[in-house]
Amino acid sequence: MATLTAVFVAVLCVILAFLFKISQRKETKVGKAESVPTAKARPWVDEDLRDDTDIGPKDDNDGDWVESGEEEELCHVPYLGSRYPVEVMVQRSQDFYNLMNQRRSVRFISPEPVPRQVIDNVILTAGTAPSGAHTEPWTFVVVSDPEVKHQVRLVVEEEEEVNYRHRMGDKWVSDLQRLRTNWVKEYLDVAPYLVLVFKQTYGIAAGGKKKTHYYNEISVSISCGLLLAALQNAGLVTVTTTPLNCGPKLRLLLQRPANEKLLMLLPVGYPASNATVPDLTRKPLDDIVVHV
Amino acid sequence: MATLTAVFVAVLCVILAFLFKISQRKETKVGKAESVPTAKARPWVDEDLRDDTDIGPKDDNDGDWVESGEEEELCHVPYLGSRYPVEVMVQRSQDFYNLMNQRRSVRFISPEPVPRQVIDNVILTAGTAPSGAHTEPWTFVVVSDPEVKHQVRLVVEEEEEVNYRHRMGDKWVSDLQRLRTNWVKEYLDVAPYLVLVFKQTYGIAAGGKKKTHYYNEISVSISCGLLLAALQNAGLVTVTTTPLNCGPKLRLLLQRPANEKLLMLLPVGYPASNATVPDLTRKPLDDIVVHV
Prior knowledge:
The structure is a homodimer.
Chain A (H helix, E strand, L loop, with lengths): L1 H34 L40 E3 L7 H16 L14 H11 L11 E6 L2 H22 L1 H9 L9 H4 L2 E8 L1 E3 L5 E3 L3 H19 L12 H7 L6 E9 L7 E3 L6 H4 E3 L1
Helix pairs in contact in A: 3-7
Family (chains A, B): Belongs to the nitroreductase family.
EC number (chains A, B): 1.21.1.1
Cofactor (chains A, B): FMN
């Protein structure tokens, strides 16, 4: 009888331990399910949607997302593009390379005014970039007001000093020292225009529902490539900066909505007459291309 | 005695259950510690460095990273850029916008050959893009071999079919249906060139040490913007694709090293004579620019 009781208790314990293990497994599964985005509701949504760096009022709950089939199919039309004779094409590709190869990141910008029409044209050009599912997830905020430019400078310099002194690590600071960049950004006051490029991490469809912006960071970066090409083509200069941790403050300063995150900040103008650039070279073709 | 045995066994079971729970907790903690990047060792390194989607041989441990001050400071030279009279600048900006605005993503590509020199020039142009700390973190793999192109197609179509059927969710598929894209990618066989754009998530410095590539994805996307501009300027077409989950397989197919991750795949050629494009419009200027 005693032995039977002991065996009974032992079996009971094994069963309890087994049940305990099962419950643990379930917990793990639930935990995982929570941390993994629910693919059906929001496939491939940018991580920024879940960032906690925002200051100011929180976005209202989760909102409605556009459902399948709410947008109609587009009709297709013939593609009408320019075609050049081979020798013209070769020459055009060479000329365009020569022009773009003269582009440099310039940190010394002239205060001379630049026609607004040129700025509009280069931004229109940036807006021709392709984007995931044609969502066009970009907003270009062009600051020419001296007081706002100065506010931008204050925000950037304050954060950049912290970045340089604490956040970036010796290695990065050293890498950048070669290019003589630091947290004093005089060009933010001097340049006639500051172009702040925001990526829209989601869109707002008709009716106020949220609309997924697939690959929004890649799309907006591509559009910045076109922006740089357009500036170079017009004889203007800029420096492509990604002000670390300034995004939320600059977004609020410029009163942009919560779905927009700062991706790049480009001061734009003519080069200063005494502008210098680091004596960099670019990799030769063989170092960047592989033919198969 | 019998009761004592039973109590003893029960206590033993409780102790065992407790130890079991403790060991579970430790496992969870270790799992978390591994997934969090060690910020000090590698500031701002791309998440891809820790992706587990790689197939094939694992990268050898962690490797050495270039230390501060191992690279010398660059001297600075005067910036010599073109400057145009105002009316010329306005006209140039308008003409360039008109040219870029004719660009479309074209999925119907002619098999006609395209001079290799043009491809080299457009890739040189892409290589003029700015990059974080001038790391130039891009590799352009140009595939013209028909057998390799077909292998690329097989990989992409196999993965894309899974994406469309299972991974993407109804909403994304519906968003893309408007543009009539699906997992059959005939252009991968037909286009004279496939340009596979890899981002180098880190570099290898002289001496075999690893070198941080700051903002490599943004940099490579910007260079793709320049690539698109150069193709459009030459009268060639492409479609900017980001083949989901194909990266590791295509990297191995093309024998690229572990630090390179596929960012985009662009089939390049003349447009097919019967090429069509979705009847899309672009947002007007007022919808993409905000003047402050």
